[in-house]
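Milestone M4 deliverable, item 7.
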Amino acid sequence: MKIRLLALAAIASSAVLAGCSNNSALEQSVADLSSKVDSLSNQVSALQGDVADVAAASALAYDEAARANERIDNMAQSYTK
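Output delivered:
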C-alpha cells in the first residue's frame, strides 16, 4: 500500500515538473512586463521634469506677486486723508 502511494506521488511530482519545463509563455510575459516597466519609468522621469518646471514657474510667480504687493503697499502708505 505504501509502495503504491509512493509510486503515485513520484508520478504526480514528475508530471508537475514536466509541466513546468515549458517556460516560453512565462518568459514572454516577463519580457512584456519588463518593457511596460521601462516605459512607465520613462514616463515618470518626464513627469518629474515637468513638476520641476512647474515648481520653478510657481516660485517665480509667487515672488512677482510679493513684489507687486509690496509696491501697492508702498503706494497706499503715501496717500493720507
